[in-house]
User: What shape does this take?
Amino acid sequence: MTDSWSSSSWDVHLDWRPETGRQGLADAMRRAIREGRLAPGAVVPSTRELAKDLGLARGTVTRVYSDLTVEGYLRTNQGAPTRVAANEVPDAPSRKQPTPRAAPWVPDARWDLYPGRPDLSSFPRAAWVSATRRVMQEAPARAFDYSDTRGPAVLREALSRYLARSRGVLADPERIVVTGGFSHGLFVLARVLHERGDRELAFEDPSLPEFRDRAASAGPAITPVGVDERGVQVSEIDSPAVVVTPAHQYPLGVTLAPERRTALVRWATSNGSLVIEDDYDGEFRFDRRPVGALQALAPERVVYAGTTSKTLAPALRIGWLVLPRMLVEPVRGALENLGWRPPALDHLVLADLLNSGAYDRHVRQRRLAYRRRRDRLLAALPGGITPVGISAGLHLLLRFPPDFRSESEVIAQALRASVAIDPLGRYWMRPGEHPEGIVLGYATPAEHAFAPAVEALMNVLR
Ligand SMILES: Cc1ncc(COP(=O)(O)O)c(C=O)c1O
Assistant: This one.
């Protein structure tokens, strides 16, 4: 049941049910703004008025407004009424599209601890130039022709060796398709699965909303699966395919426990279902031996997905899918229908980096550097704040104690101090009372900016 709610200053239909609480109210307001029922520039009621009309505590409504302000939906000015933001919210979607969320938003801040990117200043420029020179000297003329849709064989062979030795993937080059990054591969896979009749695709809750929206735009309905301290809750999966981050759950940072790995593979093999393993930062494991890829346990039921976005740079737009045999041709066909032709020259350069050992050297060097950063960050944290997901990756989660400031207050304060961080709140799929925290990308700043960025963050948290 949805409530149509109105007040003296407002007459707006809000799909809000009282039992969904603060999260539900925030979602309902986002939807109303997205769908244009709350027009850009419109004044929204005061927190006091809305709280009274909805029978909520005023503090609850204040936190919703503060969340939506941080996300760019609302605009607040001291002494003036709160309004729907004029520019930040994209046009209302057409009926067929999924409801979009706030775009991945990287604030223009002095101290960048926003997750999702490596230290861009560490790109191995000299190694890339040397590899490019070698490719230009050695590549035959046919290398400059349209390439195989799956990517040039030389790259697929180099990836096959690299993935086998570094991640234990069973990666026959014939099963590898090189894509324009993970998000591109995810869209194509979602389209193929939808076209073969899979109407639903499950995602971990929480997970990256931009990827869920990307997959939904290919057709399937997106369903949530919970995550606890042992990883994705396999028994909750009720869709023919699921996207998971087993090595380092994004954003919570937990590693899928051994019995859950077994259960997930058993689920996929016994139901003929599919697991999409997003191994976005599997190379960066610090304290323990790397967890091998799930794919090796069931290569006909698991799609392994990797990317250069964390090891080298997101600008390259190079990722790969290692597919079950039955999906190779459908994925290739879907890519062709989308007009995809791989940027084969960049692919040849990457193949050279992999074959010469320069890629492994770069990853080893970055792993050491990011581990040092992680240790410095942990040492600087004030008491009471719990770091989670620290044993791997380029990000960690800071969980707040129960009596701490709200997530949105911390984000707003960080923005005032010109520190970019990411609220955990935006990752949840289902409304409800979720633990609060922030997601930190400690790989993001350049080396010289790391210590001052941590100091600026600590001033916000203290
Ligand atoms: C969870 C997760 N998977 C995958 C990726 C990589 O995506 P892409 O290869 O499209 O850059 C990212 C990048 O931020 C990510 O956060």
